[in-house]
Amino acid sequence: MRKKLPEVLNEAEQARLVDQLHENSPTKLRKLCLLRVMLDCGLRAAEVLALRRQDIDWRTGRMKVHGKGKKERISWLNDDNLGLLKKWLEARRRLRHQNDYIFVRMDGRPMQTRNLRSLFQWQAQKVGLVDKHVHPHTCRHTFATDLLTKTRNLRLVQKALGHESIATTEIYLHVQDAEMEAALKGLRNGEGEE
Fold first, then answer.
1. Are 89 and 135 spatial neighbours (Cβ–Cβ below 8 Å)?
2. How far out from the chain centre does Cα 81 lie?
3. Is there a contact between 62 and 76 (Cβ–Cβ < 8 Å)?
4. 88 within 8 A of 29, measured Cβ to Cβ
5. Most exposed residue of 1, 107, 149, 175, measured as fewest CB within 10 angstroms of its CB?
6. What residues are annotated to the active site?
7. CA distance 28 to 33
8. What is the pTM of this model?
9. What is the pLDDT of residues 115-164, one digit of tens each?
10. Is 1.10.443.10 the CATH classification of the domain at 11-187?
11. Which of 67, 39, 32 is nearest to 138 (CA)?
């Protein structure tokens, strides 16, 4: 029996999801930060919501991620995401939110995973991504697929995702197989030509 492949966003869909989110309001800035960090670091919903200020080295972008089973791993934020997070924390400060969690609701209380799911679904509908079920784990699948495509290193993807077993990570090889199948089948039908 063939395992169901994870749904991922291509580059154009990722751009649609974040491009309309400008930094002109705290709500949009928070949403932009959440989407960028999840797409670029592959964090689970619970992991991104558990991030605290002290988990990030604000000089280097080194980030301590609190994963499943109380396991920790290290990830890195790129300079753009580090800059976005600093802007969000400054906006939060002006809103007088005092706890250490990075991502909070607009009233200052910690966000819940259901808040994050609603945020993703709302944003996907707003930009017209109605043909895909976009949820926080979609970003994790997208990150893993993009990282594997770029590096061709399954062990690196395993480590970045915090998977204990390489077998869990191997699903992303099948995503690439499906993409290759579609490309090769379309090659002589005129679909694969540029």
1. no
2. 12
3. yes
4. yes
5. 1
6. 44, 68, 137, 140, 163, 172
7. 9
8. 0.85
9. 999 988 999 999 998 888 899 999 999 999 999 989 989 999 999 999 99
10. yes
11. 39
